[in-house]
Amino acid sequence: MSILEVKNLSVSFKQYTAGLKQIQHNVISSLNVNLEAGEILAVVGASGSGKSILAHAILGILPSNASVSGVITFEGEELTQARQQAVRGKQIALVPQSVNFLDPLMRVGSQVRTSVRKGKAVEAQRAVFKRLHLRQEVEHMYPFQLSGGMARRTLLSTAMVSGAKVMIADEPTPGLDPVVMKEALDHFREFANQGCAVMLITHDIDSALQIADKIAVFYAGTIVEIARAEDFIGQGEAIRHPYSKALWRALPQNNFIPIMGSQPHPGALPLGCLFAPRCEMATPECQEDQPEMRNLRDGMVRCIHAT
C-alpha cells in the first residue's frame, strides 16, 4: 500500500498586476503520484516546472497567497493542516533546495540535534557528520560560515537523523563534489532499503537513475509519465510520453537533440495537453482537454498518442 498518495493536486498563487488587478497563476494542475515504502521515486523535469511546489504542498509550507485543492494522504489518513504540522520534520522529512532553511542564529550542530527522535542527539549528529565528511568543528559553526556544499550536507544530516518514514529531497546534490554526491545518493538508497519512502526531486536524470526505482517526469506543473528507471535506456524506445523522450534525447550522451519552444509560463498555460505546442505528434484533439493519466506498459502516461 502507498505510504503517501497525492490525488488531483492543484496549486495556484494569487498575484496582483498593475492597477491592483488580481490574477491566479496555476503552477500545479491535476497531479497524481504515489510513494511506496522502500521505494525511491525521482521527480525529474526542467527548472521552474513546479517540482519544489509539490514538496512544499505535501509538507504544508506554501506561502499564504497559495490556493490548494486535491487530497494528500499519509499512511491512509488525509494530511490536514494540523496533521501536516504534526508529522513535518518527524515522520515526513524535507531536504530543502535552499540553504536559507538553516537558522542563521543557531549553530549547525545544535540544529541537527533537534531533529534526533531516538537515541543520544550529540552522538547521532556527530556520526552523521562523519558519514558526510563534515569535520567535528563544523558543529560549532553558524550557517554563514559554511560553504554551499557544507550547508547542503548539514541539511541532509538533519533529515538523516530524523528517523522519518518519508523523505523528500529537493535538489539535494548541487554544490557537492562527485564523491560526496555519490555517497549522499547511496544514503538515500540505504534509507529506502530500510523501508523509508524517498521522493528525490531533481533536474539531473543521470544522478536519479543511479538509485531510483521509478521516474516521474514533470512538465509545466503536472506529471506526464511515471516509468520504471530501467525504461530509460538506448534511444528511449521504452519511454511513453513525447516530452520524456525529448528530455532523454537532449542529454549529451543521447545525441544532445533540442526541442523547439519552451515550457509555458504558469500564467499562460495552453488549452488541452500542456506539451502540445511543442509536440511533433500533436493533433487538433490534443488541444481540447488535458489528457488523463492512464496505464500503459507497466507505467502511467498523460498522452492520447502514447503507445
Automatic annotation (TrEMBL):
GO terms for cellular component: plasma membrane. InterPro entries: AAA+_ATPase, ABC_Ni/Peptide_Import, ABC_transporter-like_ATP-bd, Oligopep_ABC_C, P-loop_NTPase. It is found in: Cell membrane. It is a peripheral membrane protein. It catalyses: Ni(2+)(out) + ATP + H2O = Ni(2+)(in) + ADP + phosphate + H(+). One of its GO terms (molecular function) is ABC-type nickel transporter activity. It is an enzyme of class 7 (translocase). Residues 4-245 form the ABC transporter domain. Keywords: ATP-binding, Cell membrane, Ion transport, Membrane, Nickel, Nickel transport, Nucleotide-binding, Translocase, Transport. GO terms for biological process: peptide transport. CDD domains: ABC_NikE_OppD_transporters. Its EC number is 7.2.2.11. Belongs to the ABC transporter superfamily. The complex is composed of two ATP-binding proteins (NikD and NikE), two transmembrane proteins (NikB and NikC) and a solute-binding protein (NikA). This is Nickel import system ATP-binding protein NikD. It comes from Paenibacillus pini JCM 16418. The lineage of its organism: Bacteria, Bacillati, Bacillota, Bacilli, Bacillales.
